[in-house]
Amino acid sequence: METLNGLKRTHYCGNVGIEDIGKEVVLMGWVQKSRNLGGLVFTDLRDIEGICQIVFDKDISKEAFEKAEKLGSEYVIAVKGIVHERQSKNPNMKTGDIEVFASELRILNKSETPPIYIKDDDDVSENLRLKYRYLDLRKPSMQKNLILRHKVANIVRNYLSENRFLEIETPFLTKPTPEGARDYLVPSRVNPGKFYALPQSPQIFKQLFMVSGFDRYFQIVKCFRDEDLRADRQPEFTQIDCEMSFVDMEDVISIMEKMMQRIFKEAINVDINLPIPRISYKEAMEKYGSDKPDLRFGFELINVSDIVKGCGFKVFSDATSNGKSVRCINVKGYEKEFTRKNISSLEEFVKTYGAKGLAWIKINQEGVVSPIAKFLDEDTLKQILDRVDGKEGDLILFVADKDEIVFDSLGHLRVEVAKRLNLLKKDEYKLVWVVDFPLFEYDEEEKRYVAKHHPFTSPKDEDLEKLETNPQDVRAKAYDLVLNGFELGGGSIRIYNSDVQMRMFKALGFNEEQINEKFGFLIEAFKYGTPPHGGIAFGFDRIVMLLAGEENIRQVIAFPKTQNASCPMTNAPSDADEKQLQELNIKTL
Amino acid sequence: METLNGLKRTHYCGNVGIEDIGKEVVLMGWVQKSRNLGGLVFTDLRDIEGICQIVFDKDISKEAFEKAEKLGSEYVIAVKGIVHERQSKNPNMKTGDIEVFASELRILNKSETPPIYIKDDDDVSENLRLKYRYLDLRKPSMQKNLILRHKVANIVRNYLSENRFLEIETPFLTKPTPEGARDYLVPSRVNPGKFYALPQSPQIFKQLFMVSGFDRYFQIVKCFRDEDLRADRQPEFTQIDCEMSFVDMEDVISIMEKMMQRIFKEAINVDINLPIPRISYKEAMEKYGSDKPDLRFGFELINVSDIVKGCGFKVFSDATSNGKSVRCINVKGYEKEFTRKNISSLEEFVKTYGAKGLAWIKINQEGVVSPIAKFLDEDTLKQILDRVDGKEGDLILFVADKDEIVFDSLGHLRVEVAKRLNLLKKDEYKLVWVVDFPLFEYDEEEKRYVAKHHPFTSPKDEDLEKLETNPQDVRAKAYDLVLNGFELGGGSIRIYNSDVQMRMFKALGFNEEQINEKFGFLIEAFKYGTPPHGGIAFGFDRIVMLLAGEENIRQVIAFPKTQNASCPMTNAPSDADEKQLQELNIKTL
Fold first, then answer.
1. A326 partner at 20 to 30 Å CA-CA among A111, A143, A240, A341?
2. Which of A4, A192, A531 lies closest to B532 in CB terms?
3. Pick among 2.60.40.10, 3.90.960.10, 2.40.50.140, 3.40.50.300: CATH of B13-109
4. What angle do the packed helices A140-162 and A249-268 form, to 10 degrees?
């Protein structure tokens, strides 16, 4: 193996072009492939900018040619040579107009045969990809994703800095998050028996910055939740965390949607029109069955409870008499795409969300075709079709149940149907603010109200007096930004008055002692001049994932964890040293 | 309490100026002070930009005036009014040319009397300051420090991004750091009995990015070490972490010193001349007794062992015959500043570094004055004075001991003397690269060699063959950047050959099994085409501390920990829930 020994790279492989013809260049990178054709060795040399073709000709350098004959895949080499115009240009290659005739070759490192291919369509298991992540990250798509991630972080930091936001770091070794998800704990050696928690968000600290007068804060910061994982969740994730003083909801929304506009423009050259539309929580649930509505397509939910009340179809009439509801979606114009078998599989699909069945009506050339038609009198059927604008070619799908289940199952069903119809375009970006959230939701397990967002969210002024009497009716000064069915972020105007904050904690079922234990220093801080303030936090991984057109956040994270929160490359988590556990005053069970 | 109710701030308090005279402005902030003088209420209103004087006149608004009479310190208010030129201008105030006559006042929040004063010279204990950190952070000096911190981070990110470095995030929940300091551990719930470690640095990950072809990586990132704390150490600290491929030491030094130059220029308008001077580890030790030399003043160490060998002063002659050394510093020209009592206290000082005593020679009007002069013959004395350039007015201070102790005690002594003489100017910035470090140091406790930097540091090519035979003589391709006696950062060219890496691990005393257990995936990664690479990591907190002219990193961290790694504000670390410990499969002892 040879060394650089002072040799300097002059160009990136991917950047050598027609303007460099005649120049001597020094390139360094990895051998993508290399083959001897008619007495010349042709080597595709790869670096982060792309690939350049190198030609080794024994008439130029016998030594280089002989070394080149032995090159293997992923060898690391340095090449010196002259840029020539190619005889046969390759229009599919950024550097397809040129090739470099090498006068010198240094083999900087060899490579064994890699256990995974360095190409995007390698089709190996994700576990193997993660085990050899350092090779997986050589793939163009992964490099593109992480470059995009860097770019988006820069756009965000520039925008917020220009707008006077200060990035201030908050502690990682801190207190457990009350009313949050499950914390990761860190045993303290110096304080035996005590634990730090890793932050689920810098929520309390950023509010304290407002108390301190820091006015406009932000941070792109790692946060931690010890929850079971899904495709778009990781034990550690990155947030764009913001907070502002002396603002109301309009101020926060306005500055943040401008940031979003800039991200889309600068990162992927997509224009977002402002203002971003808004929808109330209630309307989102009624129309889309979800507070994260995907607005790229229709199939909105329609309530037919009033029509089917007392009708002949027992499932419908029973539901409406039990305070449940009957709602449907009209898969307009796609009747032909759904055979009975397809519809059965949709029924299986809604059952996973708790629905007991899926009633349906098709309208085709023969008229109404439906297993439930015979139970419905003509007038009821007509009223239904009128309401859903039922025309030839339509497929109407019904669920009857508690609102919660109807919303959940039809909400997912409309997305599933759109997916099957190929209506989910990756390059269509439908942003929407969801507003007017309820402040609380009832937790059946804990038998108490819990905060829908978090306990620092301000109630709407006009709902303040219902805090004790009708908590379920109190709306919050909260707002979520949703893109194509994904929540990009959420925020709120915060409570800044210690009395209201106490009332909020009490509404959550805490007594004075618990409040002091969990939130004492915050209540105390609020006594010394707290400005009105509010903010928002965005899921950075998720934003980058959507901008990259990926479906899994692991595709935009360099070293993610698997579903069981482990890393196949490092084997973390791993056994701990007995001695160290003793120092930490803990033992494993 | 009143609400904003749509009222918008038009200006920051500190930014209203002569150009705004006649305008109506809306300001929001905290009441610094407020007093009734001759029928007018004068209120100093403070926000992050500064202070503005508000005048409440009952002839303008009786309602505002009456509310203003009741304002207390740190009340949060909004004021609307017209900017007037002041009768008696205050040149000590940024906004001293103007005052705002208020037509409207809203009290947004009240404040109880704060437990600490909101001014820089409050003189309360640091513990109280940290307990009420949200108030402490209202002080102008703390706001200035955190604004500077934000600015420095932006300068670094801009510079590195312009130079094609990508910021890529590395995991926080990862593997223990072999050969590092003590790790913080995080028990895994999903993998019972297993632990993550918080990273001490992203060292291995950044090297894997180089294996992946990411060429130029950086990250401003939190790192963690569970060590006992000192003034400039915290359990969590922030690093500027960089790594580059296809480079040698000159490339890394060159790009990084340009970054440093830019930081000094843009953050505090100080010019740093490039190239930054270099000194070898050996010379730094010989001249300054330290590998973190403070070059703002002289008093360099001088070896007189050869002169005093066999002399009449037993302490000196014994030392030299036992392979120890006798060295001194000449406190040139400051003889008069040091009485015998002062010198005694210097002797006490060096004893804390293990020296047994401090011999001294003064040269004043009467000639040589010294308790040891009588033991030295004239020629020896003359030779000493010649070597140290001893002239009237000088004070020469000697330590005789093992090199290690002599360097440590005289190294600290020269700084202590300079401090007492007020020679440590905060606005003088002497940067120096320390190079040619030894690769290993011998660990007396573990009875083996350990890496002076870390086990991935490359030996110098010409010393490679001594790895097994003379480890103590192997020099490293390592470099530290030192400013005024503080290490700002350190880095190295890394080993990139798996065979050399194996030899290095073996030199550290590991057997194959241990190597595989601790570093297996790295050795494996190195087999698939690893480029030559190197990098550096800077202590971000420390850089900001020095730029801010502070002496304690807690002054540039929003929510630092105390010496016992706790937070007086949140009371972290705290007791954990029994139920959660069970879920984590651990118990406390």
1. A341
2. A4
3. 2.40.50.140
4. 140
Among all chains, which residue has been given the structure tokens 């006490």? B348
- B-proximal residues of A, 536-575, CB under 8 Å: 557-559, 561, 564-567, 569-575
Residue B59 CA, distance from chain mean position: 55
What superfamily would CATH give domain A297-420? GAD-like domain (3.30.1360.30)
Q: Does this chain's domain A13-109 share its CATH topology with A297-420?
A: no
> Which one, of B89, B134, B142, B96, lies nearest residue B115 by Cα?
B134
Which chain B positions have a beta carbon within 8 Å of A29's beta carbon? Answer: 213
Say if residue B225 carries a ligand binding annotation.
Answer: yes
pLDDT in tens, chain A (589 residues): 789 999 999 999 999 999 999 999 999 999 999 999 989 999 999 999 999 999 999 999 999 999 999 999 999 999 999 999 998 899 988 899 999 999 999 999 999 999 998 888 878 899 999 999 999 999 999 999 999 999 999 999 999 999 999 999 999 999 988 888 899 999 999 999 999 999 999 999 999 999 999 999 999 999 999 998 776 689 999 999 999 999 999 999 999 999 999 999 999 999 999 999 999 999 999 999 999 999 999 999 999 999 999 899 999 999 998 889 999 999 999 999 999 999 999 999 999 999 999 999 999 999 999 999 999 999 999 999 999 999 999 999 999 999 999 999 999 999 999 999 999 999 999 999 999 999 999 998 888 999 998 999 999 999 999 999 999 999 999 999 999 999 999 999 999 998 999 999 999 999 999 888 888 889 999 999 999 999 999 999 999 999 999 999 999 999 999 999 999 999 999 999 899 999 999 999 8
Displacement of CA B387 from its chain's centroid (Å): 36
* CB pair distance less than 8 Å for B48 and A183: no
Identify all chain B residues contacting A150, using CB atoms and an 8 Å cutoff. Answer: 161, 166-168
A183 shares contact with chain B (CB less than 8 Å):
yes
Does the pTM surpass 0.90? The reply is yes
Q: What is the domain partition of chain B in residue ranges?
A: 13-109, 142-279+431-557, 297-420
User: What's the CA gap between A200 and A237, in Å, rounded?
Assistant: 9
Q: Does B214 touch chain A (CB under 8 A)?
A: yes
CATH number of B142-279+431-557: 3.30.930.10
A529 and B574 in contact by Cβ < 8 A?
Answer: no
Report yes or no: A94 and A13 within 8 Å, Cβ to Cβ. no
A198 and B CB contact within 8 Å: yes
Q: Answer whether B135 sits within 8 Å of A528, measured CB to CB.
A: yes
Alpha-carbon span B584 to A377, nearest angstrom: 60
Strand partners, A240: A220, A538
The predicted complex's ipTM stands at: 0.96
